[in-house]
Specification:
Elements (H helix, E strand, L loop, with lengths): L14 H12 L5 H21 L3 H4 L15 E2 L6 E2 L1 H13 L7 E2 L3 E2 L5 H17 L7 H21 L10 H15 L4 H13 L16 H21 L16 H5 L14 H4 L14 H14 L6 E8 L1 H7 L8 H4 L3 H11 L9 H4 L2 H7 L2 E5 L1 H8 L8 E7 L8 E3 L9 H19 L2 H12 L1 H6 L2 H7 L3
Parallel strand pairs: 5-6
Antiparallel strand pairs: 1-2, 3-4, 5-7, 7-8
Helix pairs in contact: 1-8, 2-4, 2-6, 2-19, 4-5, 4-9, 5-6, 5-7, 5-9, 6-7, 7-8, 7-9, 8-9, 12-15, 15-17, 19-20
């Protein structure tokens, strides 16, 4: 046979895709820990979205594509009065969830925020439930949403364990798109074959570049990229369910497949079977709306605040010892141009913690950033890596995100070195963290709703069985403005 022709033998589905479909179709969620964590994840994620509605840069992204458009079975966006088609509804829910960088996090070879998938899951569940009711069928329950969240978390998180998309310049939202596509296709009644077809479409898309997360181009697209990814998943699921074909060798095809084109020839790895591991070990951002690699650094800075607040002019150097991922992703010097630039700057976040003894979403805005003391502190910061921190960041039984800060003064004295290895949102600090997470949720509810509504939502959401048995339509109605 001539060597200058393609061998046109269609392969079976790549194993990564077939394993995703098998998991979504056949795995039974039996872990009470995963379900309880998913409930906490749900309320935290919704709360983050409500908080984001305070910011016009976020709200300008919301609403129908064409003003005044009305659609049947319109998806409700929490904290608003919008009723949108499920694709735009997924975008809007995903957008508010991620806007402030305050929802959950998963850190491994790749990082990301698996609760981003709630945009597609909740939008499609709301749409389907309303459609079911119109046809005399039962709506979906929130138990289905929680199970879908667990599975989406697992797909995104297990793919992230050994596959580093950031090292080839791709954004982690590729995994939101893949995970969301699998789950929303299932929710819309797709078969195992259709789930594989739809997931192959997600891999076939051109994937987002990380350039909008890094100097010199850091910008607000990083706040809506996940909404874009989860809404694209809904679109791809709908295309597939209309009868569109899939692409079995989309990952492994020589020359033209994802692995050769976008992954430098490396094979995607699934280092462990899909189960409920990721949800059970998810990291919550509880105390600070800060990129997760900086959470413990900000906590250390806040601890040091009382010791240095009256000695700012006496500071000679601020020593920050951290891990390799923090240095690579969020350590930056020079001018910071916008809130998206600032909330991905380790030095900026530490400076605010030292100055104010806290860090809130408003601290990334221009009026705070123009305080000359912020940049004065940044210029005194010395960043170094502790190899142990970097190693334990990847160890499955630790997954630490350690930072240590010590302040040195002109007279030769120093503060103690404050080391924080595990943030309050870590599994190792769940007992301490969940009451704070619940307080955060109530605080976010109060931004939008009156006391009576807040208490009603709070009581439903904190009771596992009540929430699981609540219909999706009733749940969504709780948050309509």
């Amino acid at each position: 046979m001539s060597s200058n022709v393609d061998l046109n033998i269609r392969p079976g589905y790549d194993s990564v895709i077939s394993e995703i479909a098998n998991y979504v179709c056949n795995f039974e969620i039996e872990s009470d820990l995963a379900l309880d964590t998913a409930r906490n994840c749900l309320i935290d994620t919704i709360g983050c979205g409500l908080l984001a509605l305070k910011f016009p840069a976020c709200t300008k992204m919301l609403g129908p594509v064409v003003e005044g458009t009305s659609v049947p079975f319109g998806v409700r966006v929490p904290g608003t009065n919008f009723k949108l088609d499920p694709i735009k509804g997924a975008f809007d829910i995903g957008c508010i969830i991620r806007w402030l960088d305050y929802n959950d996090t998963w850190l491994a070879a790749e990082w990301g925020h698996p609760s981003d998938n709630l945009g597609g899951i909740l939008a499609v569940a709301d749409y389907i439930s309303q459609k079911n009711i119109s046809e005399g069928k039962d709506p979906l329950t929130m138990r289905v949403v929680l199970e879908s969240m667990i599975m989406a978390h697992e797909i995104q998180g297990i793919l992230a364990l050994k596959n580093s998309f950031n090292k080839v310049g791709l954004d982690h939202v590729v995994l939101v798109k893949v995970a969301s596509t699998a789950l929303v296709t299932k929710l819309m009644g797709g078969s195992s074959d259709q789930i594989m077809d739809a997931v192959s479409q997600a891999w076939a898309d051109g994937q987002s570049l990380r350039t909008y997360r890094h100097a010199p181009n850091a910008g607000s697209r990083k706040s809506w990229a996940a909404g874009d990814a989860t809404s694209r998943a809904v679109r791809l699921a709908m295309i597939t369910l209309s009868g569109e074909m899939g692409y079995p060798g989309v990952l492994s095809a020589p020359v033209w497949g994802f692995e050769d084109v976008s992954f430098k020839g490396e094979k995607l790895a699934l280092p462990q079977p899909f189960n409920t591991y990721v949800m059970e070990n998810i990291l919550f951002k509880i105390s600070f709306p800060a990129e997760f690699h900086a959470q413990t650094a900000v906590e250390a800075a806040v601890t040091l605040h009382p010791q240095i607040k009256n000695r700012l002019d006496d500071i000679k150097a601020i020593e920050i010892v951290t891990h390799e991922s923090a240095i690579r992703i969020i350590s930056k010097v020079g001018e910071l141009n916008n809130p998206a630039d600032r909330d991905h700057c380790l030095q900026y976040m530490v400076a605010i913690g030292l100055l104010k003894g806290n860090l809130v979403a408003e601290d990334y805005e221009d009026d705070v950033a123009k305080d000359p003391r912020v940049d004065a502190l940044r210029e005194k910061m010395l960043i170094s890596e502790d190899k142990r921190y970097s190693i334990e960041y990847h160890e499955a039984d630790k997954r630490s995100i350690a930072n240590k800060i010590q302040i040195h003064f002109n007279d030769g004295t120093s503060t103690e070195a404050i080391e924080v290895e595990y943030p309050i949102g870590h599994k190792r600090r769940r007992e301490e963290g969940i009451p704070v997470l619940e307080k955060k949720f109530m605080s976010n509810l109060k931004i939008t709703f009156d006391e009576s509504r807040c208490q009603n939502i709070y009581s439903i959401c904190l009771d596992q069985k009540t929430l699981e048995n609540t219909s999706v339509t009733d749940f969504q109605e709780l948050f309509v403005l």
